[in-house]
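Exercise 7.
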Amino acid sequence: MKKSSISRRNFLGKAASVGAAGIVVPSILTGCTSDPKRKVKTVSWLDQSPDGPVLKAGVIGCGGRGTGAAINFLNAGPNLQITALGDTFKDRIDNCRAKILKEKGQEVDFDSILQNVEGRDEIDSNREVSPLKRAEDALILDNSNLSREEQLKWTLEKVKEITERI
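Solution. The predicted structure, written as tokens, is:
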């Protein structure tokens, strides 16, 4: 496979040059005209996306940046929905969901969220095609009351046990 000759530094330098040219060239062109009242047409930017069909997105990584990106996405226009949240840590998903609902002025009710998640799990587990099933040799880590350090320790112990059996 051929390695790309474009580095981040080259890319950013060229992008900055193009951006600067976009600012400088119109002023040079209008400065050279004999008609000082002549205006250059500029692009008008929309504050929000136009109304259209529903656009759905999912968030993978529900930490601060992921949550902020989700909120920015929802604020970008009408008919935008977040349909899935994914993260390694359940508390991040819960916090992200709560912040999104709060930002949108919706009441955060933990019991209804839990009921919704459990209901979707039930549907996914019993669907006819590709049901959500746990593998026979899967290990279950209930991290409800474990710190991240304790989760790591538990995981490393299990890896050691499994590799010793091989």
